[in-house]
């Protein structure tokens, strides 16, 4: 397993009050669930990717609103799903609902922290390296163009 980078999110309320708190908890739950190893593996399959993301987003939205005290009917209206679908997510009867609940329970035990695979940082490093290499290639192309020009002039004068 890859090393992890931990991001602390101290301003995320576990029992949100108001829309801003709900939004923060919902986002933290979604990000926390997305970076779980089993979800990262499932997201590799392009045929399942959108289904997973959609289900996790719905489950995170439902749980954040439940923790804010909204009823199942209110949650269903806000999220745009049936009450039955909301109940399945909240009861952990969907895989997404189960994972989001686990993330919430982890937040409750350990504080709101999201563990990101170190590859996220590695991607940034590789992007920087790629930028430097592109710059070096552009300079090399300029130098070759100049050398070709000089060579053409030298050959043309003979």
Can you walk me through this structure?
Helices cover 73% and strands 6% of the residues. It is mostly helical. The longest helix has 38 residues. The protein has seven helices and two strands, in the order βααααααβα. The N terminus is likely disordered. It has two domains: 114 residues, no CATH class; 40 residues.
Write a compact overview of the structure shown:
The chain has 7 helices and 2 strands; from the N terminus they run E-H-H-H-H-H-H-E-H.
Give me the count of strands. Answer: 2
Mean pLDDT across residues: 87
End-to-end C-alpha gap:
65 Å
Number of discrete helical segments: 7
Largest sheet report: 2 strands, antiparallel
- Could you say which overall geometry the principal axes of the C-alpha atoms support? elongated
List the helices and strands in order.
Answer: EHHHHHHEH
Please give the order of strands in the largest beta sheet: 1-2
Low-pLDDT parts are: 1-8
- Provide the helix percentage: over 70%
Q: Mind telling me the C-alpha Rg?
A: 25 Å
For this entry, give a set of tags.
73% helix, 158 residues, mainly alpha, two-stranded antiparallel sheet, 7 helices
What's the arrangement of secondary structure elements?
Elements: E1 4-8, H1 18-34, H2 37-42, H3 46-67, H4 72-79, H5 83-90, H6 95-110, E2 113-117, H7 119-156
Antiparallel strand pairs: 1-2
